[in-house]
Amino acid sequence: ASNWMSAASLMGLAGIIYLQGYQALAYVIGWTGGYVLLLVLLASQIRRFGKFTAPEFVGERYGSQGARVIAAVISIAISIIYCVA
């Protein structure tokens, strides 16, 4: 979730509400619900493992350096797409 939470995301939500009005409420509720779902399902596990990034958690959880590298590559690819968009 920490990768998704940024000023650009929050400003984007405000922009969607401004442009679409009340109809954008469903998007905002879904976005907020997703954060809460991640918090409930993943926060305790990540805290238990003592990891701070998704690739660290995946590598530790599955006991594989390969899984850690794959998670890191996916995170970088998503970040690049996010920055370009």
Automatic annotation (TrEMBL):
Major site of localization recorded for this protein: membrane
Compartment annotation: Membrane
Top-level taxon in the UniProt lineage: Bacteria
Family matches, as InterPro entries: Na/Glc_symporter_sf, Na/solute_symporter, Sodium:Solute_Symporter
Protein name, entry field: Putative acetate transporter
MF terms (GO), sorted A to Z: transmembrane transporter activity
Residue ranges crossing the lipid bilayer per the database entry: 24-46
Family to which the UniProt record says this protein belongs: Belongs to the sodium:solute symporter (SSF) (TC 2.A.21) family.
Organism: uncultured Geobacter sp
UniProt GO cellular component terms: plasma membrane
Keywords: Membrane, Transmembrane, Transmembrane helix, Transport
Membrane topology value: Multi-pass membrane protein
